[in-house]
């Protein structure tokens, strides 16, 4: 990649600049050793447009935007801004060029105020900060913004949706004219997502910014984007105006062929006996603050109960209690009528399985092989041992090979450390392990977060199949579309409580979103523990 002049230094404080310039990426290629992550990819983002970037996990989307942001240099190709070739060597260089990025994970300092986070995000600051002056300037800046924030609020007190809005405001405050959004709505309610994307699209249409949005949600693409570029295995395989493409056509480009179907409907089996009964459950978070405040719910055989919640409202602690990773302070959990404390012997006897959020962190040992991770649940059972004592590697390897084939897990070898696999393949491997044999209760927490279209379709189908075989499924998800796609009954969790309950047939996204955002949570009736008995 040819050299470019050093970008101008960032201003001491944000100032209004010219409208966004045309961004052109031409023939970008990037290799990591023998692996070709980007192969001759070109992209054109028109000023004032919303450009969606689609592709399966591992398609090269992250590598492409990291090259644009200066995290890593491309091996070949050119990046032009307004017709002038640029070569940012760091995110600070990209910021000086007016290119900023809102990441999937928050970059805010929790113990600082919104005001402090915004001011300290600047590349240059005076030796002594005049905070009254900065706050006055920020107040004026906020008046021009499409959504507002309390400048004096500490970030740790904000909801996930509010934090995401601050991350976007930070890029606007830094005067980014081209804003890259990486899965920006994963922590927002449907109403918040529509509000934020609609406002950003309005700014783009007004010629204030250009947007590149990385998303897996076709609804967001068709509703808010002007153009789309599709990557597959590091190459650009399609592009065009969104108005000229259907979701099916975009999915086919992503997949390179037939699109996996997602069977829907109530399932083959009838609703059976109560498998999970949680009554008045209380638990604290990691710093001793109450996270669960009297949760009561039940799940019966042959049904999927969806718990819809925005991150940080107690659903993580609920799953951890059920998985044996967190102690409850009071309340009871019963599985098939037996008191359940999530001990290993109990999970075996009662056939309880768990697919946790972030399985590489919560359900795997990254440095162990695919085969070893697949055997973690049952390595000491007779089918894996010799003379009831010695673990048989050949039996573990044979079972792992069968699981890899059955679940379409893409791995160089069953001996490859599982940490080297893509997120979708880690999720498939854990799902294969957890669904092996008979399952009476499956707990699935955000099972498809950040996964591509194909992985989502396959994992949803596997969860439905478990239900159809008679398993009771508790699905905890921040993705309301996923809850609607899978659940027969929906519970909304807010501030550590179940605040709303509805059959999926009569559920309204706007109403669920209201409860997810905490509106009406304290007025909602608490579900009676025998309500569905």
Give an overview in words:
This protein has 533 residues and is of the alpha/beta class. It folds into 3 domains: 23-255, P-loop containing nucleotide triphosphate hydrolases (Rossmann fold, 3-Layer(aba) Sandwich), CATH 3.40.50.300; 269-351 and 438-533, P-loop containing nucleotide triphosphate hydrolases (Rossmann fold), CATH 3.40.50; 361-437, no CATH class. Helices cover 30% and strands 24% of the residues. It is built from 17 helices and 22 strands. A 6-stranded mixed sheet has the order 6-7-8-3-9-10, sandwiched between helices. A 6-stranded mixed sheet has the order 16-19-20-13-21-22, with helices on both faces. A 4-stranded antiparallel sheet has the order 2-1-4-5, covered by helices on one side. Helix 13 (393-407) crosses helix 14 (423-434) and helix 14 packs parallel to helix 15 (453-468). The protein starts with 22 loop residues before the first strand and ends in a 17-residue tail after the last helix. The relative contact order is 0.11.
Rg estimate, integer Å = 25 Å
Tell me the strand percentage band.
15-25%
Instruction: State the distance separating the first and last CA atoms.
Output: 67 Å
The count of domains is 3
Number of helices: 17
CATH superfamily of the largest domain: P-loop containing nucleotide triphosphate hydrolases
Uncertain segments: 1-16, 263-268, 521-533
Overall body shape: globular
Pairing-aware structural class of the strands and helices? alpha/beta
Question: Any idea of the CATH class of the largest domain?
Answer: Alpha Beta
* Main β-sheet description: 6 strands, mixed
User: Major sheet: order of its strands?
Assistant: 6-7-8-3-9-10
Number of E strands: 22
